[in-house]
Amino acid sequence: MKKPHVVILGGGFGGLATAKSLRRAPVRVTLVDQSNHHLFQPLLYQVATSALTAPDIAAPLRKLLRKQENTQVLMARAVSIDPDARVVRLDQGELEYDYLVLATGMVNNYFGHPEWEAHAPGLKTLREALDVRSRVLRAYEAAERETDPERRKELLTFVLIGAGPTGVEMAGALREIAAETLAADFRTFDADKDVRVVLLEGTDRVLPAMHPESSRDALTSLKELGVEVHLETFAESVDAHGVCTADGMRIQAATVVWAAGLKASPLTEGLGAERDRAGRVKVEPDLTVPGRPEVYVLGDLISLEQDGEPLPGVAQTAIQSGRFAAEQIDAEVQDLPKRARFVYKDKGSMATIGRARAVAEVSSSRFSGFFAWMLWLVIHILFLVDFRNRIAVLMEWAYAYVTWRRSARVILDAPSRHRPALERDAILRSELTRSSERPAATD
User: Which CATH architecture has domain 5-34+76-108+262-333?
Assistant: First the structure.
């Protein structure tokens, strides 16, 4: 008898959790991702700020799933879904499915201004992280040879739009680079004194998804580091030389990073289901699409409330929903009872602002400062999916702690803001090749 075919779209936290949880199920699994690696997105900002390299936070999907004989990995781009025919169309070919798991995640949302992307990249992919890193380092290099004080001021101004975890962590890291890593590296300017880091947030506090007390602690840490924070401030326009805000403020800046909003992968449109404003799918309590019990939606693509609150778009939601979907599929295939609803278990949230500066919330307890920072370090190392990644990140962090230096400061790309796709691919390949230069770590 032919085994049911489970197609998983996306090799992130949710997709990988689903695939691994189906390792003993009597099914065939095909995991499709346009990249060949699983990416630990919470640490992308550290690649962007020279603390880590791309191989430190990326692990080949085939390596992670090589022992699962019932699982095939396809590096391909899913173009559309035909739920009536139960077919996923790829950039080359198509896949029929008995069960579909949609775990493609979110993309940057520029709220009707796609032209801003060229001037304010987000931090959702390795390419974007490497692009941001290049912009930051090139700004310093250009400032070293700039003789016009106003132009130098623009080069040394960095704007973060959005004060969620990505914006806050990135802002703190940029100030630490200026104050410590590069403080003595340049001769024509003082990095600590001359670098300006600006954080813009539309709500009335940073880290708005966390408890107000954590927000206050984070704001205090940001100000202590020298970050300029503007709350209740919206970006009205973004161009090659900076940002204009809705209240009329103009910030001249050569480097702008977008961390202000996300929207669901366009693939959700093909499901024919009701979606919220961000494109997330309004699913049944068991994470299936209404009228499509064979289609599961995971992670931050889910629009579902629990205890009156929407499920958070964090890694834990993706992992837990992935495991739940796998259990449901396995139970149905084997004619076993299924659970009626998905129950998310909040494991807490945290954000780091810099060295020995962090905020963490675990259950009803809140922490800040050094203890929260150590907790953040341990949790992030443990959640890296590959042993080699854990060793590499631990070594880089230990080096940075002892020396205050950041090792990943090589500029690999061309200075153009509009690099061709093939050139960007070459940059990424060069970065990933660096992993072969490290001492090998056993699995």
Answer: 3-Layer(bba) Sandwich (3.50)
